[in-house]
Amino acid sequence: MRRGQTRSRPEEQDGWTKQELMTAGKLSPGVFDTLRKAARVKGPNHGGLDWMFSTTDLLALLHRAESGNFSIRGETAAVAWRAMLIEKGVTPPEARAVRAVRPSK
After folding, report:
1. Nearest to 83 by CA among 10, 16, 14
2. What is the pLDDT of residues 26-83, one digit of tens each?
3. Are residues 61 and 101 in contact, defined by beta-carbon separation less than 8 angstroms?
4. HEC profile for the chain?
5. What is the pLDDT confidence band of residue 16, given thresholds at 50, 70 and 90?
6. What integer is the mean pLDDT of 16-22?
7. Are 102 and 68 in contact (CB under 8 A)?
8. Residue from 13, 17, 24 nearest 65 by CA
9. In whole angstroms, how far apart are CA 80 and each of 21, 24, 40, 45, 61?
10. HSE (CB half, 13 Å, CA atoms) of 83?
11. How do the domains of the chain map onto residue ranges?
């Protein structure tokens, strides 16, 4: 881990670990990392379940989870992450409307 990314005690850090976000969002590590990269949020090179994500990072992940290609897999994560933000006293932005998928012809 790079400097500043280790934590001595979880309650001392302001944010969430990769493990906490994956567990709450019911996402596999691969899906989480794909979502994280699409949201352009920095993260660990490999593994790094103790990597801390800030409120700003989580808001970017939330925005990406509710939009585009992630609107199906990210829906469960978005609901859980909104609850995590509210629990910390942060008011998340309004949920984005998910566009209906048109049936193919």
Report:
1. 16
2. 999 999 999 999 999 999 888 889 999 999 999 999 999 988 787 778 888 999 999 9
3. no
4. CCCCCCCCCHHHCCCEEHHHHHHHHCCCHHHHHHHHHHCCCCCCCCCCCCCEECHHHHHHHHHHHCCHHHCCCHHHHHHHHHHHHHHCCCCCCCCCCCCCCCCCC
5. very high
6. 94
7. no
8. 24
9. 9, 6, 20, 25, 12
10. 9
11. 22-87
Contacts of 53 (CB under 8 A, 6+ apart): 15, 16, 17, 18, 21, 41, 43, 61
Degrees (nearest 5) of the Cα angle 52, 66, 7? 5
Look at residue 72 in the predicted model and tell me its pLDDT: 79
Pairwise CA distance, residues 82 & 92, whole Å: 6
Q: State residue 24's pLDDT score.
A: 93
